[in-house]
From TrEMBL:
SUPFAM superfamilies: GST C-terminal domain-like, Thioredoxin-like
PANTHER family: DISULFIDE-BOND OXIDOREDUCTASE YGHU, GLUTATHIONE S-TRANSFERASE-RELATED
Gene3D superfamilies reported in the protein's UniProt record: 1.20.1050.10, Glutaredoxin
Organism of derivation: Psychrobacter glaciei
Domain GST C-terminal: 153-284
Biased composition, class Low complexity, residue ranges: 1-13
Name of the featured protein: Thiol:disulfide oxidoreductase
Residues covered by the GST N-terminal domain: 56-149
InterPro entries: Glutathione-S-Trfase_C-like (IPR010987), Glutathione-S-Trfase_C_sf (IPR036282), Glutathione_S-Trfase (IPR040079), Glutathione_S-Trfase_N (IPR004045), Thioredoxin-like_sf (IPR036249)
Segments of this protein annotated with the region Disordered: 1-50
Length: 284
């Protein structure tokens, strides 16, 4: 009888600790974690702040996170080729301080995420072109300057765009999923860490199998290096090189030999070396 009572008490305690979602969700407390002080369920500007504008035709507003590094790399690769008109000024948007909610930044990116870019050389009727979402920025710049993207319709372009969209769809599981619960959540939680670690490793296996017979994401020649490599390397290349979340051992990234080879090869490119440590100008 005593054992039955103890078991009953244990089961009751488990039920009491289980979260039951309410019928209607409300933000009645901070969510905890690294960015809890700035997270809200609403969009729009929270304070007035104009964006600085430099002399270069392209103005980048970003941070050297994996998402930001994507655009850094392409801009530096264009600079490496000496492409006229691809000069840029880069300004720091400190997301931990809420710079992304300034009125000027929200004006060019209503989603309040980095990176964002404004092309002043495309000014028509006093209206420069503003872009947000890293994939859109990479496609725009690559097509504008005719570099690092297959232009003609066909297999090469289809492969490039497919892998580009693969990264855009997959990275939230790595960054917002695995990265958040492994590195930024207020306390470690087994289920979400296991769930997103499994998916991250599956994605690494997708890449490893693909790169077994391919030097780059879309071919074996230097000319095949393109924005698909750039956008994927910023997340998965840096991950297997031990640059993200201090999670290399946990995820056993050394097992992915083909991804390792590809990541190291791209990391040695002069433009990539400059891009990961790009000096960003202060907003003020």
């Amino acid at each position: 009888m005593s054992n039955d009572n103890n078991q009953s008490t244990t089961n009751n305690n488990v039920k009491e600790a289980t979260y039951t979602p309410p019928k209607v969700w409300t933000q009645d407390k901070e969510s905890g974690g690294k960015f809890s002080s700035i997270n809200r369920p609403t969009a729009g500007a929270r304070h007035e702040k104009e964006l600085p504008v430099g002399e270069a035709p392209l103005q980048l507003y970003s941070l050297n996170t994996p998402n930001g590094v994507k655009v850094n790399i392409l801009l530096e690769e264009l600079a490496e080729l000496g492409i006229e008109g691809a000069e840029y000024d880069a300004y720091k948007i400190d997301i931990s301080e809420g710079d992304q909610f300034g009125s000027g930044f929200v004006g060019i990116n209503p989603n309040s995420k980095i990176p964002a870019l404004v092309d002043h050389s495309a000014d028509t009727a006093g209206e420069p072109i503003a872009l947000f979402e890293s994939g859109a920025i990479l496609m725009y710049l690559a097509e504008k300057f005719g570099q690092f993207i297959p232009v003609a319709a066909g297999k090469a372009r289809a492969d490039c765009l497919s892998w580009l969209m693969w990264q855009m769809g997959s990275a939230p599981f790595l960054g917002g999923g695995f990265g958040h619960f492994y590195a930024y959540a207020p306390e470690p939680m087994e289920y979400p860490i296991n769930r997103y670690a499994m998916e991250t490793k599956r994605q690494l296996d997708v890449l490893d199998k693909h790169l077994k017979d391919s030097a780059y994401m879309c071919g074996n020649d230097e000319a095949d290096y393109n924005i698909a490599d750039i956008i994927i390397w910023a997340w998965y290349g840096q991950l297997v090189l031990g640059k993200l979340y201090e999670a290399a051992e946990f995820l056993q990234v050394d097992d992915y030999k083909n991804v390792q080879r590809w990541a190291k090869q791209i990391a040695e490119r002069p433009a990539v070396k400059r891009a990961v440590d790009l000096s960003l100008k202060p907003m003020a």
